[in-house]
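Repro:
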Amino acid sequence: MTKYVLLGLNARGELQQFDLLALNEDEAQREAAQRARQADVQVVEVCAARAGKTGFSRQHMSFARMFRRARFDLSLFVYELLALLRAGLALTEALETLDERRRQNQPGAAEEKGHYVLSELIRLMQQGKSFSVSLAAHPDCFSALFVAMVAASEQTGGMTQALERYLQYDGQVSLVRQKIIAASLYPVMLLITGMVVAFFLLWFLAPRFGHVYEGMTHAELPLMSQWLISFGLFVSDHTLASLVCLTTTFAATVVLSMRPAVQQRCLVLLGRIAWIGAMLKLMQLARFYRSLGMLLQGGVALLPSLTMTRELLPLPLQAGLTRSMLSIAQGKKMSESLEHESLMTSVALRLLRAGERNGQIAGMLEQAAMFHEREITQWVDRFARLIEPVLMLIMGLGIGSIVVLLYLPIFDLAGSLQ
């Protein structure tokens, strides 16, 4: 018996996975069709699971996903598709136009499997699959939020409006993200520069001071100076190994920082700092409000929208959201359920209550997200202005300490001669 994996799309636009056992591929296809009818899902793909290679496959997928995301710009794709649809082209014709332009601009890119998915989207749609099902077959390129928006627009007939809403959503989220990246770029450069200068002092100056102090019998080196010079001599004698170790450490830090588990752990550690943890929670809630408002405005039902946005929250808040969904399913108001699980700020709570009274929940959630995003932007600006001088002070103290420890025996010798 061979293990197979069935990927199916349900009526709410969610991609589900089922495990199958079959003797061959034909039997797996029959079993998949039967399981799809039982679960009321539409078959997207049936493939064999590779036993014994899970670790390698996941690692390979993570690297492939990283490069694929770097090459596939979803916001640019949505913008170009929206422009063609506004011009009067049919959906398939618009995709074919984008694919032809890509082939002309990047000859030979069609052979690079997975780097671009337009050809695959066209093939799936020509087989009779809907646009949302075709998008769901490529979760590395198209987010679940975007697929759900498209699936809802296919039922209401508002494809262009859904694309416009997604572009607006992506623009607001990207604005906050770019602000955070721009604010953290200068401190990161300061840290890298400080590390390079410190390494140069240890590699170049410390060994030379060590050779000078070897001939000075009257000078007694302080303990810290002895350690520093010994470490500098070691680095100088093993320059290549030190550079390899430093480069490996830097590369490992970059790779680990891209892993979701490490990112979650870092967020948990930062969250324990009161003035940073409160702002991190506000960032997560603002993204949750904006994503939820976009889905609701696009025609997705409340509970499926909450399910799809649950992954945007940290694990403790995800558990609270699950309990809130149970309360909402039992008939409790959305504002009361979310407030009970600490998923509402005071501003968002008042706006959501007003939205429940006038039927504008989606608009009020977006207003709450916009309000908090402005607050986050101001906090990031203040934090950047504070952290930059603090980092410069730490760098100055570190480099100054190295220089003082190197020159301290000379100062002691000059004092003894006087």
